[in-house]
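Crash report, auto-generated. Payload:
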Amino acid sequence: MNNREIEEKMVEVVKDYYEKEKLNDTLAYREASEENYKAVSNLKFPKEGRSIDEMIDLLNRDVFPYRVVGDHPRDFAFIPAPVEEISKIGDVLTTLYNPNAAGWFSAPVIASIENLLIDFLCEKVGFGKESGGTFVSGGSLSNLTAIVAARDDKLEMDNINKGVAYISNQAHHSVNKGLRIVGIPDSRIRSVKTDENLKMIPEELEKLILEDRKNGLIPFMVIGSAGTTNTGTIDPLFDLAQVCQRQNVWFHVDGAFGGSLLLSDTYSKRLRGIELANSVTWDAHKWLFQTYTCAMILVRDKKTLLKSFSDNPSYLKDAHSEDQIESWDLGPELSRPALSVKLWLTLQTLGLDEVERRIDHSVKIGEKAESELRKYDHWQIVTPGEQAILTFRYYSDKKTEEELDTINTEISHGIVSSGFAVILTTEIKGMKVLRMCTISPKTTNEDIEMVVEKLNECVKSLKL
Amino acid sequence: MNNREIEEKMVEVVKDYYEKEKLNDTLAYREASEENYKAVSNLKFPKEGRSIDEMIDLLNRDVFPYRVVGDHPRDFAFIPAPVEEISKIGDVLTTLYNPNAAGWFSAPVIASIENLLIDFLCEKVGFGKESGGTFVSGGSLSNLTAIVAARDDKLEMDNINKGVAYISNQAHHSVNKGLRIVGIPDSRIRSVKTDENLKMIPEELEKLILEDRKNGLIPFMVIGSAGTTNTGTIDPLFDLAQVCQRQNVWFHVDGAFGGSLLLSDTYSKRLRGIELANSVTWDAHKWLFQTYTCAMILVRDKKTLLKSFSDNPSYLKDAHSEDQIESWDLGPELSRPALSVKLWLTLQTLGLDEVERRIDHSVKIGEKAESELRKYDHWQIVTPGEQAILTFRYYSDKKTEEELDTINTEISHGIVSSGFAVILTTEIKGMKVLRMCTISPKTTNEDIEMVVEKLNECVKSLKL
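Recovered output after restart:
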């Protein structure tokens, strides 16, 4: 195929998406059938190429439609991906030119854009002049990058088997995974108690640290959360930071989800104390409306990343040589796409006021969902919707806890299989609960009212 | 902006690329000027959004053109990215639908495509029924994934500080980085001697292993290369595998670059022994013509990945539950784009014969470059072009080694700044040499002849 034909196909693909798929985008979830799987598994990789039209048709027909539609106004599962379409334009540009965004030689102006973004985000965190960071493939990798930096800052390599890390019992499982990768097994990961609001208790943390130190272990890292995945709960960051400073322990804040609150004048104060962290994880493919993926690791002192990831000792001498620092010296990856350009394009063209409006909107939609559910006695709010994540469950004092778990699971199945909305369950304080993450800027009050109505119908149909 | 406007902009972006940028694509490298940097740095992130047309113009004018053009027929630097345009169509589809490719619930048919590809690639390696793997963000992460699996298979967590890894003195620096991330410092990374052809010497390896074991250390991993980044050299994989089996050490093969030789009937035999490895890294954004990024980790026994990365112990009991294994249980990442779809589309529509033809072509172009340079006395071949990577240097017995280093650096500067071709230097056996990686399917014999002519001109202009 020549470039002219490629161009035509690509234009067709774009038009088909916006004129067919996007317009028919009424379902938040479509379940795949045996037929769809077979369409794919029947096609061995052939010696002679197949028709590109047929293959694109197949992808449009049997593959891509079957998914959780992350930018659907009624996808409330996981952390949805409520993508701004402008991000897709940035992504398409990135695909077309396909620069290798690692390095000042390969793609110099993109490296410069990346620096501008990292500086901007560090400023939002409240970090000072020594701060820095880089783009990474996702929140898991960002957390891992921070964990490596923390370990190398606080432990000697031969002391890894004495290092202890502290996380909340609500932490995302990628945090445990990251710790295991760097050599900290579960037996040296302390799960710190949380209070009735699921916030890590600073006094409990400090007690554990002192105890471990008494036992000859080396506490090296605390991981707090600026919005847990489960409930959006923000740990008492300021108080945790005080404990960490007192105890000389690295303080990492997982803001993969909630970091974006920093772009809201109204809600950024909820993250007070994040400016005292040593490192922050922030995903732009979550609450900054980017396509998969776009994540950042930000650190108070960029020398800590260089110490772990750079082979170039000259960097460590001269902390002011920002301009020449290669991104591979700040993290575990090397060649990678220009993850930053789509975010840059989005912020430049939406403007920060609009981004703020969207974040504020998400919080209000979470509150709306909460108040809508409170109208009915059979819905019990488990954790409030104040950070755009709400958990709740069907409740009746005539049912056992076991029965309630089953009922709530069935409600989730009912609403998901209808495709009208995606609401999954999670476990909180031993209960199976329903969970809604309301970060789509497209979700309206009417959506919420319809969803609650649908939930009520699900309950009714169960004939409890 | 509504979807109609987004569609129009995106179509415009595609057309502009193919009708302007792509047609003017005569330079392999364009250096950015102060003006380009300023165009970007002058634009603070605004409260009110800027015009999207202006921002796209700026990206097309000041940002993207300035790069190493990875798919240019005369980009010979690093491992180039000689992207097949069909991969870009797959990427655009992935961007538009933006599925979260992690997980059978989020994107079931894509998960199925991923399995089909992993199975196909494992079969090419020569792995058996227990094999598996996953897509990861790049070669560095793939190597890291293998290193974690190796460590967890051969060491106890409390023995990490006794673990020793063995790499060739030609190994890619991402390997050292990966080892440090999992807790193996440079002091326990042995750099095994290579022979005059830069291949790791199995006898030297075994000697080091025995020595370390005698000293109470625990040899756990050998990393061989199926095509080094520097010279394309393939280690004696079969013999290394024998040593590893004898010594009960994990054998990882870094085939990020050279793994693709497995798709050539003619050249796959050069990788004999790779089928005995425990794990293999393979990047499709290198010699399989994909956009950034598309990389795979493949393992002989998928249970080894599950042991390191899964929280779900039931997987470990039932190795036959392939269908339900989530990709996040096989590697360090979670949410991610559908990296597999573009590769699937490329293989289906090009066909395996065409892929093979392209790989064979690259090898021949490397050989052509070698024979073309051999026509001139002032060019000295340092390592042969047989694996599509050739190193050579200007040589004259009237110059000192130091002078030769300077001259060869100047030749590289000369050709890069002309934009006609990108040829960088690397260091081999203490010498500064020129290096050409010839994996672009678009590179012709005429390109090579022109490049050698240009190199000769560079030499002449230096008036040596």
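Post-recovery validation: Residues 99-350 of chain B form a domain with the Aspartate Aminotransferase; domain 2 fold (CATH 3.40.640.10).
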